[in-house]
Amino acid sequence: MEGSSKVFEVSPLWKHVRKEWKLYSFLVLPIIYFLIFKYAPMIGNVIAFRKYRGGPDFLGTEWVGLQYFKMFMKDPTFWRAFTNNLVLSISYLIVRFPLTLIFALLINEIRRLKLKKFVQTVSYLPHFISMVILAGMVKEMLSAAGPINALLGHFGVEPIAFISLPQWFPTIYVTSGIWQGLGWGTILYLAAMTGINTELYEAARIDGASRLRLAWHVTIPGILPTIMTLLVLDIGGIMGSNFEKILLLYNPLTYESADVISTYVYRMGITGGNFSYATAVGLFEGVIGLILVTTANTISKKTTKSSLW
Amino acid sequence: MKETSSSRIFQGINALIMTLVVFFTLYPFVYLIAQSFSSEAAVYGGKVSFYPVDFTALTYKVILSKPDFFHYYGNTILYAAVGTLIAVTATSVMAYPLSKDKLRLNKFFIPFVLFTMYFGGGLIPNYILVAKTLDMRDTIWALVIPGAISAFNVILMKTFFASLPNELEESAKVDGLDVYGIFLRITLPLSKPILATITLFVIVGIWNSWFDASLYIQSKEKWPVALYLRQVIETAISPTEIGASSEQANQIAATVKSAAMVLTSLPIICIYPFVQKYFVQGMMIGSVKG
Amino acid sequence: MKRFSRAMGIILSVMVVLSVMAACSGNNNGKGNNKPAESNAATNATQSEKPAEDYAFGEDVTFHSNEPVKYSMMYSDHEAYPYKQDWRLWSAIKEKTNVQFDLAITARTEYENQKSLLVNSGDAPYIIPKTYEEGAFVAGGQIVPISDYVQYMPNYQKAVKNWGMEEDLKAKLQADGKYYVLPGMWEAPGGGYSYIIRKDIFEKAGVDLSKEATWTYEDFYAAMKKVKEFTGKKYVLSDEFKGESTLNIAAVEYGVTAGWGKANGMRFNHNTNQFEFADNTQDFKDFVSYFNKLITEGIMDPESFTQEDDAAKSKFFKGDTFVINGNYQLLADYQTKMEDPDAQLYMITQPGGPKGQLMVETSRLENGIMISQNALKDLGEEGFIKMLRFVDWLWYSDEGQTLSLWGVEGETYTKDASGNITLNPDITYNGMNPTATKLLNADYGFGGGVFAYGGTSKLRMSKMTDGEKDFVSRVLNNREPRKLAPPIMGTPDESEQLNLISKPLMDFVSTMTLKFITGQEKMENFDKYVDQVKANGSDRYTQMANEIFGKTKSLLGY
């Protein structure tokens, strides 16, 4: 950990820490917390390289090297899940990211305070709906006798069995995700917007800037760090997925587009030796996630000068 | 002149969009509430759309009449209060130094924090740590400490702190405040929006969490309400093993999911207006001038 | 860890063999000198003379310990009858046996999770009931290979002998030739899941139900067709459980696997004593063709495979459909929810198929009890055996089972001369005495799932309503029991290999099963499917399975 002091010259760093010790002191307890609660359990990941079949020897019983990694890397169904994961996550990101921002900007423009608060509160509601209920609602809406197909019927279109057709899954996933998360996602942007100096708005308005210009030249730059932070984190999160939602909405007919890494590992079963398998997959995901977030961070730094680190 | 009319058009369009948004987000909730108050026949018959059919508050009565329910609610309030206090304090304390570019070790510490977002220990090592090594089983600590600081929240806060203008700190330093003083007197008061946001995130997280409790809490009296309601929902779904299917059981089974959902989310939604106070624009003006 | 306890076990068993031989007549034991029940290994090892038993046990003997004894146990708390400390159940057990429980109470919904955590962290209580899948825990070394000790359990042995359970028990054998769970045992298999139909509608449509017990799926199809013509509704059957139960019970009659029972897609050919992959055969083609017919003719709703259970039940309650899959408990439940007050629900015998009129339910085993190594460690082998004999009495003796289910004679039930049990009229249970106010389970603790399961057919029938009894006897009288397939007893490594082939393979099979049935994939492409299945590993799996079987068949008696 203190390795950095060996790479750089020892004296300036040492002096620097001594000088800023008060600031660094803030970090002492939190770092201990991280070491205990986040890093210590990570030792458990060693079972990705060791055989573990359950029981209190949670570090596994013997080294098996890359056996478990080879297992999933040779499995074409795993790669299908991997691809689906990418497709679903990226699609969702591409749609959600601008929409959330635009929605936040629109809310920001609402003049009447009461209306603004009302819209905000209402838009958060879907976030609280449990996934079980959401899945039930989605299925009901998309069923053969449901409202969507009824609407299609008015236009003479035959009912579509949305839930059993793999080509519809990405759309369903993204749309339901937007519905559920759009409002909630604006919170951070709105919070950041309050930090923008209103004088900047005044000045720009005096210069005759239109609403659109204001948004582009004042608001967005004002919350740019927040925007980039969220974007970078989201890119890093591409290997993740909404496990519960997919589990509830998918079925064998849609595996080919709906099955993602988490659901695939789940179906492989956490029994006996598969603890190791699941951990190996987890490590794989983690490494890719790190690569993604680091790349995104670097790009962000180069293009917008704001980045996570 | 142009400005006013185009601005009015814009406001009009915006209002239209907002109405649509409100409708699409509110409708399912209205539907759920209506369902939770409808009779079982109406629910199964698919007759419910906007308002309750054959109004009955039986499910609510049954859930609320168990004194346990309020007891569990009390537990959740306690956990949320303690947990949020710890979490927000710890997160802001950690995020503050990380927001200072001048600290060279941040190049190490920020990835140190970020790394934990991509790698974890897994269920069993965490369980052994919390339940056995630290012996936090059946205590509130198992629920509020392990999850106290989330890397995501730290990074969000750090971003916000970093966006605060430096002049404020400079002038405070001139006035003789040290780092601790600056943090408490300058940074935190100015960070109300982000503190409110993180508070909201944490409260909602703790409020809805049942998994940790299912792992670590043995005594039923210590259950948070989310775990209780999850059980209520789970049992209504699976076929009952009990003998007599009474009228009550049927009615409850049909509406318990929606009722449970309404009961869990309503209070949280009510919290939001309190938090919203802090999302008021223009807080910066006063502080810069002053 | 394992090696150490095995060594100790050997040493101790030599010691204990002497005392066991003395006790082995199976009848009343002399009550010897008092010995503390929770003696640890050290104390036991020093007993070299024949130690006298300080407890009574035996076939049809009430277990009774001289000293009060406490055993730790996991308890799955069912929300319909939440745990009460003052239940008559606990005092009744204590009165008879002098045994109390140190319970680790967990809500039913969290039980599996807790079980996994406690076992895997080494903290499991001695007795772990409600175990459906013990396979996952074997390799962790925390569970006792109980087959090594069942010799000490007389009532268990009696049930095995009387009901001919040896074949059934083989299904529980692990790679080391032992089994790790004390399964719940039923004298005869249960009725299981079948089709709940609207008897009133079927009859009005002109279907002759008098012969339904001998129907095949083709007969069932003809009947449903009549119902469709008569009612003019869009579908006759809209299924719940995502169709998995229907596919499962039908698959049996076609000699394939699907739905809940799809497992690894294997079937065992008792003529060649070989495993075969069933789900890409002509039989399988016939199977999916049948359901495809139901779909294309509008008899079965294609949404059966994707909709939520509530949606399916809704259609049935409303009267938009007339057949739904379920078990008898569900039928009783649904009868009260039908919108049409004249609706009459009836459970047909599962139809037969090309392979005959086969009984769907073959297993007479159900969830059981695991015993944790902690018991062996803490109690020592002698104390451990004593505990096993208690378990033997409570869960496997007629007396113990009756107590768990019905309670105390005179207090909660009465018995007549021929041994028929009648529940007291002021207590209700499972639909009996529906107007009574006292609940056998919630108020007394009897009839609960943790203790009351398994047993004689008589006992099972005593719980049933007349309708259920009729259904079960129709099944037992008109269906041929199937021969059980032997287990594939792979080592953990082999099992891992098999699993790796099987899971993706069966994913593909599930997907294609539904695609053929719903018509998303055309029947003409079946041959392509057969080839694809082979490419996905069905041949490899079959080969491995037969290799393993070849190695272990002597253990299984083939």
CATH superfamily label of the largest domain in chain B: MetI-like
The tally of strands of chain A reads 2
Instruction: Name the chain pair whose interface involves the most residues.
Output: A-B, 86 and 93 residues
- Report strand % of chain B: under 5%
Mean pLDDT of chain B: 81
Q: How would you name the CATH homologous superfamily of the largest domain in chain A?
A: MetI-like
Describe the structure.
The complex is a heterotrimer of chains A (309), B (290) and C (558). Chain A has 309 residues and is mostly helical. Chain A is built from 17 helices and 2 strands. Chain A has a two-stranded antiparallel ribbon with strand order 1-2. The longest helix of chain A has 34 residues, at 76-109. With 290 residues, chain B is mainly alpha-helical. Chain B has 2 domains: 1-56; 59-289, MetI-like fold, CATH 1.10.3720.10. Chain C has 558 residues and is α+β, with helices and mostly antiparallel strands. Chain C has helices at residues 2-23, 41-46, 88-97, 111-120, 135-138, 154-163, 166-170, 199-204, 217-231, 244-254, 282-296, 309-318, 328-335, 373-396, 398-406, 440-444, 457-462, 466-478, 492-518, 526-535, 538-556; strands at 55-56, 64-65, 69-77, 99-107, 127-131, 182-185, 194-198, 266-269, 274-277, 323-326, 345-347, 365-371, 413-415, 421-423, 427-428, 438-439. The chains are: A mainly alpha (309), B mainly alpha (290), C alpha+beta (558). The interface between A and B is large, with 86 and 93 residues.
